[in-house]
Amino acid sequence: MTYRFLSPRDLTPTEETDPNRIDAVQAQILNAGRWTVPILVEKSALFVMDGHHRLAVALRLGLEAIPSLLLDYRDVRVEAWRADETITPEQIFAMAKSGRKFPIKTTRHFYSGDFPKCEVSLDELRHRTVRQPVEISKRRAG
Description:
alpha+beta, four-stranded mixed beta sheet, 8 strands, two-stranded antiparallel ribbon
């Protein structure tokens, strides 16, 4: 599997973020000078499965593109962080469509495939043009 470059402005977050965690992730990314972990994105609806804090950093830094893995729920298993809750792909699709967000740390996505090597300079991401917008198919319920 390879990652694709997507505009962070085209992605829909489905969870709230912690400002302190955004600051910490930003410091790590700036210190490395490179983007090293792709964001996991649901491929038909372009919502973030994993990487909400990294998305917030990309938007804060004004990056034009970010490495993203386009996946669906055949490739990814989802669970709730809290033992007393259940979360389903259908609930996540509905939340993404609504424009609202789950509280921080609601969903946990597990991807068992290999992550592609990702070492992209921030300068490249600041100036990279996303040539072809990703076509979003009809939102489906997983």
